[in-house]
């Protein structure tokens, strides 16, 4: 059972890593998104 959960989380890990490159953009997007667009 534990293995299944880890496998489902695996695909989400790579996506999170990509966002990690832009911590500012990710934070703005989570805050509301308006700031993220302004930053871009």
Automatic annotation (TrEMBL):
It comes from the Eukaryota. Residues 1-13 have a biased composition (Basic and acidic residues). Residues 1-40 are annotated as: Disordered. Residues 25-40 have a biased composition (Low complexity). This is TBC1D5 isoform 12. It comes from Pongo abelii (Sumatran orangutan).
């Amino acid at each position: 059972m534990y293995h299944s959960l880890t496998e489902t989380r695996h695909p989400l890990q790579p996506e999170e890593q990509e966002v990690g490159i832009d911590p500012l953009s990710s934070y703005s997007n989570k805050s509301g998104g308006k700031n993220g667009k302004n930053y871009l």
